[in-house]
Task: inverse folding
């Protein structure tokens, strides 16, 4: 599988470009430096592309290095390893713990052996550059900036950001979703989904008590914003004079068409990810309980079954199929998947519109919530399909009679 090693950054270019218009010299300069540094990194990482997926196995061992505000990773100082004591630097310890929590989540929930499923070692680099407003995964390691202190804070402070970035590595080593247009938006969405699930798993939060926010800790207290993104309510994470309104859509009717360029966010990968994000949130809420159990497993299996150019429709169909394979045809889990995608404007291929809504209303009338009995659900689904087949047979007979 051909993969492109690029720094997958948590802060989209559209936010940094808005900071370039800030009246504050410090904010403008930090944004400019971040954009220029990131652009330079793309060239450096391109050289490493041929080595993607060939990291030395290390049983998921963690090592954190201190860049000391420099930009050269090879000369960074060792700050903490599995064999050493905790550091006196909070950034080092937060990075170390975040790497470990993400590793443990994938191992305990999905039996995955580190990012590449082959024991890949986890290297983190803190204090990268000066006032660097980003954090990224570059195909081999996780790198954290300290933020400018005006708009963004130290990026090691957000567990879901760490898990988001490491999940880009999981995606590279499974579907390899191409980083542009719909496949790229899926790539970003997968990282948001599992970034949020790692946080929920760590906190032992159920789907209905989780905040479903991505990076709520990355902004300084002076910035009026809930987070970078909201999976529960795409388009409502922030609305302020500095950034404007959150541009994420929550429905295909509001899909944002942007050029497949760096300035166009590679076709809006950080923007249109709101649509599959909302679909996952609705699925998790529809199933209930802990989101990493059923909903997370369905998405994980669908990711492994996807390819580089998988589109929204493809992924929706795959999640529906995986829900059936895991929990049965007509199961509550499968119906939750169906209803979620319908809600964001994507109809599962081959399934009549309205099936999920009809089933949901029937369940509510019977006073049922959460998971339904699999046999009852299957019986109802068969009944629906039988009615549709009977109607189709009548239509065919009528057409034959007219000949």
Result:
């Amino acid at each position: 599988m051909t993969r492109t090693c690029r720094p997958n950054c948590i802060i989209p270019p559209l936010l940094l470009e808005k900071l370039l218009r800030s009246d504050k010299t410090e904010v403008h300069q930090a944004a400019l430096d971040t954009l220029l540094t990131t652009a330079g990194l793309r060239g450096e990482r391109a050289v490493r592309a041929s080595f993607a997926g060939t990291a030395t196995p290390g049983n998921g061992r963690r090592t954190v290095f201190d860049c000391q505000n420099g930009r050269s990773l090879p000369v960074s100082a060792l700050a903490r390893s599995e064999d050493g004591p905790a550091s006196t630097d909070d950034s080092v310890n937060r990075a170390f713990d975040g790497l470990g929590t993400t590793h443990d989540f994938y191992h305990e929930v999905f039996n995955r052996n580190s990012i590449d499923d082959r024991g890949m070692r986890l290297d983190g680099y803190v204090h990268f550059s000066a006032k660097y407003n980003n954090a990224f995964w570059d195909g081999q390691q996780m790198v954290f900036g300290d933020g400018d202190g005006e708009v963004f804070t130290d990026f090691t402070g957000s567990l879901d950001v760490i898990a988001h970035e490491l999940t880009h590595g999981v995606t590279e080593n499974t579907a390899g979703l191409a980083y542009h247009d719909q496949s790229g938006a899926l790539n970003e969405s997968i990282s948001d989904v599992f970034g949020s699930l790692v946080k929920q798993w760590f906190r032992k939060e159920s789907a209905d008590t989780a905040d479903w926010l991505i990076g709520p800790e990355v902004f300084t207290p002076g910035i009026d914003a809930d987070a970078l993104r909201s999976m529960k309510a795409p388009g409502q994470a922030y609305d302020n004079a500095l950034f404007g309104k959150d541009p994420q859509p929550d429905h295909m009717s509001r899909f944002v068409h942007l050029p497949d360029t760096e300035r166009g966010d590679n076709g809006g990968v950080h923007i249109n990810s709101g649509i599959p994000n909302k679909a996952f949130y609705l699925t998790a809420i529809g199933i209930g309980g802990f989101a990493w159990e059923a909903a997370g497993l369905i998405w994980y299996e669908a990711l492994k079954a996807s390819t580089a150019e998988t589109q929204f429709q493809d992924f929706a169909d795959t999640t529906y199929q995986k829900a059936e394979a895991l929990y049965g045809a007509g199961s509550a889990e499968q119906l939750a998947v169906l209803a979620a995608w319908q809600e964001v404007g994507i109809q599962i291929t081959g399934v009549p519109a309205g099936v999920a809504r009809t089933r949901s209303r029937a369940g509510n009338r019977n006073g049922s919530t959460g998971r339904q009995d699999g046999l009852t659900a299957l019986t109802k689904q068969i009944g629906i399909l039988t009615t549709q087949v009977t109607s189709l047979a009548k239509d065919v007979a009528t057409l034959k009679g007219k000949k």
